[in-house]
Write a structure and sequence with these properties.
single chain; alpha+beta; 4-stranded antiparallel β-sheet; 13 helices; 37% helix; globular
Length: 360
């Protein structure tokens, strides 16, 4: 007997950090807002939808953001508040399913194939979850519903903000075939340009390519592209495991080439990690910077200090030193992460990363 078709929901809070600030301060509502630091070497951690219309985005240097939007309002991040709200959101998820895979403070996959409320459909379950989140937090969420994680994530962008969209098994292949490859999660601008040079512009074009051709041009990612072009993604929803490190990472909406933008991205990640370290009084000796390039090749750079990192300035300085070791970048960077490990004198260990999903 074949296993039942999965029912996967991807929940993504709408402009989470900025929305929390606008919720808590009515004077900020409807105005272009950046959560971050406006001073020299400041970075944008998140932008409100009003700011995004001016081209302001997460991990952008603050000086660049102000050039895009001179009336931009900067609010310093309150990570302890965002974490508290995130706990409320994840408590709502747990009312509906134990199968929750957090991607960040504001984003998660939920497997509701058998939901705890006995609701008849995944779409109805998503509506109920979004209503509970609004009731508990005063914030809106968007949802994508489908039979696998790849399509659920695509679907959650389809009705943002404060909406939801379903991609059924009968819709999936045609939905992917009609989509420009640049819209695929996991295909950044540099990769999309390479695909375009090969005559691949849509999911249908990608589907027409033999897997051998895709692997020859894109390495290990070629097999993944071959599968998603057919709407296939067998990854299960994996509930969160205890972290052995404090880590933060984000995938950028545009691949980063300019060293100034790359440094800004690393500093944003380091500041998020530091907020966790300071709150928990957990200080490690090993700092690791993770880089994922546009072609999905990955690299890490680590440094273990003689004593734990006890100041934000030290974490920032070490993180910058590590990322500068790969300058000038030979290709675009689609993801950056910073991790602190080696707590209590332990050796550095691989820990789960917290994907901020800052462009939600």
């Amino acid at each position: 007997m074949s296993s039942p078709t999965r029912k996967i929901i991807h929940i993504d809070m709408d402009a989470f950090y900025a929305s929390v600030e606008q919720r808590d301060d009515p004077a900020l509502r409807g105005r272009p807002l950046a959560v971050g630091y406006s001073e020299k070497r400041g970075v944008v951690a998140a932008a409100s939808y009003e700011a995004r219309t001016f081209g302001v985005r997460s991990a952008m240097p603050s000086s660049t953001a102000l050039r895009h939007c001179p009336d931009l309002i900067f609010v310093r991040p309150r990570f302890e508040v965002y974490r508290a709200v995130s706990r409320q959101i994840h408590a709502v998820f747990a009312e509906f399913t134990p199968l929750i895979e957090p991607l960040s403070l504001d984003e998660a996959y939920l497997d509701v194939t058998g939901n705890l409320k006995g609701l008849p459909s995944a779409a109805e379950t998503a509506r109920a979850i979004r209503a509970r989140i609004l009731e508990e937090t005063g914030l809106t969420a968007s949802a994508g519903i489908s039979y696998n994680k790849f399509l659920a994530k695509l679907a959650s962008d389809h009705r943002k903000p404060n909406g939801q969209f379903v991609i059924t098994p009968s819709m999936g292949p045609a939905f992917v075939e009609a989509l420009p490859v640049a819209k695929f999660h996991g295909v950044g601008p540099v990769t999309a340009e390479k695909m375009n040079r090969l005559g691949i512009f849509t999911g249908a074009d990608l589907k027409a390519q033999p897997i051998e051709t895709l692997i020859r041009h894109f390495g290990k990612a070629g097999a993944w592209y071959h599968a998603i072009a057919r709407g296939e993604d067998d990854r299960p929803v994996v509930p969160d495991r205890p972290r052995k490190s404090s880590g933060s990472e984000t995938t950028f909406s545009d691949d980063l080439i300019d060293p100034i933008d790359i440094e800004a991205g690393v500093l944003a990640m380091a500041d998020e990690v530091w907020a966790w370290c300071e709150k928990t009084q957990g200080y490690g000796r090993t700092v690791t910077v993770k880089i994922k390039y546009a072609d999905f090749q990955q690299a890490t750079r680590s440094r273990t200090l003689s004593s734990p990192v006890h100041t934000q300035e030290t974490l920032r300085a070490v993180s910058l030193e590590l990322i500068r070791s790969v300058f000038p970048p030979a290709k675009g960077i689609r993801l950056l992460g910073v991790t602190v490990s080696g707590f209590g004198g332990e050796e550095a260990s691989d820990g789960e990363q917290l994907d901020l999903g800052l462009e939600g």
